[in-house]
Amino acid sequence: MKAIVVGSGAGGGIIAKELAKAGISVTVIEKGPSTITKNAYKHYDILNVGTEVSSTVCLGGTTLVTAGNAVRTCEESFKKLGINLSSEFEEIEEELHINTLPDSHFGEGTQKIMDAARSLGLEIQKMPKFIYPDLCKPCGKCAFGCPRDAKWTSIKFIEEAEEYGAKIVENTPVTDIIISDRKVKGVKSEDNIFEADIVILSAGAIQTPRLLQKIGIDAGNNLFVDTFVTVGGMLKNIKYNKEVSMNTLIKLDDIVLAPHFSEILVNKLKKYNARKKDVLGLMIKIKDEPSGKVTQDDVIKFNTAEDIALLARGTAIAGAILTETGVIPETLVSTYARGAHPGGTAAIGDVVDTNLQTEIEGLYVADASVLPEAPGAPPVVTILALSKRLAKHIINK
């Protein structure tokens, strides 16, 4: 049996590894090039579609520029669909050595936020991470690509897949899916044809639905992005820009808050002569409504009244916390709205079944496209768990 995996991010990497380990012939086709991790920021692909949405086009995908956050998301929603991911979550958490970081990796800025939140009666917890503390020297560069390879990325699974015989094809955008008699036969990249018995699309919530649309599947609806803003202000010489980002988490209804540095805030604070080391910030991330759409030519995503209300509530709470830390209240500013985790465009129960298969036999989806609702938090671990479950299904089948 031959399998093609389109994309090498969280979903694609683990599927390729698991299938190759089981002796299945696997080819991973990646649109972007390979890169050293510390240069991953050079491969950002930013779409301004009303809400700015970012992804990374390179081998390993967006896993290279995550903050290493490893929370379970959508677990109860999946159970309602008849999908129990408990064992897969446990397997992933063990394999990636997911844990909170030791106190040595919490800087002054993060600690001030933790103390301030507690003094305001808010429950705050340490963020579980797939960061290896013995390799991590806090530098604030998680979202650019770790210069010390101190966090898990999908590259590790891609390398394991290669050791088991998988073939990796880089710089090759898949342009179409080949089907015959409602069965998948392979994929095309311009004039190049790759034949296969099984195709797993892991190209992300923008490109995956576009490929499905080309073969007549009604995908691309109900796009969500986990909309977020970062609010911050001046606290001189706090040096939060050199800390591990998002090392703690405050959970509210459909909102999460986490310490976060953004250079946008520094630019907005120029009149105060702010330097990077003088800014302390909090990210406000919401479970946004699925108000977006992906077509062949456009991506549309706007914030609904409910989204704006959630952002306003989170911003008010963030302002109170930051003021409690000692941030000068009149310096508080916010970034524009951005999207962190696009998904929902090939959702379970809509475009794929509970085994992540489309109406085309042998054609599966294993990325954030299949999520039934906005996670409101980083979905990497959830995508890994879903994809591991799919790999088991394919191997058993």
TrEMBL record:
Q: Which InterPro entries match?
A: 4Fe4S_Fe-S-bd, FAD/NAD-bd_sf, GMC_OxRdtase_N, GMC_OxRtase_C
Which keywords appear in this protein's UniProt record, sorted alphabetically? FAD, Flavoprotein, Oxidoreductase
GO molecular function, one example?
flavin adenine dinucleotide binding
**What Pfam families does this protein's entry cite?**
GMC_oxred_C, GMC_oxred_N, NAD_binding_8
Residues in 4Fe-4S ferredoxin-type domain copies: 127-156
Which positions carry the signal peptide feature in this UniProt record? none
The record's listing under Gene3D superfamilies reads: FAD/NAD(P)-binding domain
Q: Which family does it belong to?
A: Belongs to the GMC oxidoreductase family.
Q: Which PANTHER family match?
A: LONG-CHAIN-ALCOHOL OXIDASE
Q: What is this protein called?
A: Ferredoxin
In its UniProt entry, the species of origin is given as: Methanobacterium bryantii
